[in-house]
Design goal:
The chain has ten helices and nine strands. The strands form two sheets. The protein has a six-stranded parallel β-sheet with strand order 2-1-3-4-8-9, sandwiched between helices. A three-stranded antiparallel β-sheet has the order 5-6-7. It has a single domain, classed as Alpha/Beta hydrolase fold, catalytic domain (Rossmann fold), CATH 3.40.50. α1 links the parallel β1 and β2. The protein is of the alpha/beta class.
Length: 258
Amino acid sequence: MSRKPTLVFVPGAWHNADTWDKITSLMEAEQYKSIRVALPSATPNPSATFLEDIKAVRNSIVAETIEGRDVVVVAHSYGGIVGSSAIKGLVRQKQDVSLSANDLSGHVLGIVMLASGFIPTGVSFLDGFGGKPPPSWKADVQSGFATIAVDPRDLFYHDLPTEEGNYWVSKLEKQSLKALAEGGEHAYAGWMDVPVWYLATTEDKALPIQAQRMFVQIAKDAGADVTLREVESSHSPMLSKPKETADFILEAVTSFVG
């Protein structure tokens, strides 16, 4: 089995897989296979569900593990909830360590989270964040989409050059409200099963740094193995601080591989 695990990248709500391009280029230069997952809920389909998002990520993981390759999940924002849920049953159990020499399948080694949260098993994304949308977006029940209620460039990309920030605003997708508000029965606290490295974004206007630090502490208090680092960035460090983010991911993966 190759020493270098496959990296499976999961975007946040409203975002498509292209937001990972800067990072995957840097990872591939370091000889890491990188797979970017497009989430079904970030499409013009208001009926897309949280479970569909989980399945999209899980399918990408299983396609690697059945070939004997280990996997690290790298997830941003809402994608952290999806990624954690997708790894259920795909980690190496402690009692299986003695059998590892005969185990030809790969496993999920860890999760890298960027500006995300830790949702308990059985709790939907929205319920995990207090049960109602924050001021930055609203639940448009009539259309079935979660709609951004503030300037999206300021919310997500305020530290990017204006032209680049506007480009990424133009790339934002519609976001299924159903995926954010429902499906808690499919949520799984995979962050309790593997080590997590968490990159907190200190200039974040979508998920304030105080909330991120609180989420990390709650996860640690629950018994999770979380390593916290911080970067001076907006909600989108993979775009505004790609080198720092890539270096963080490389350090995390090295830790997971051991």
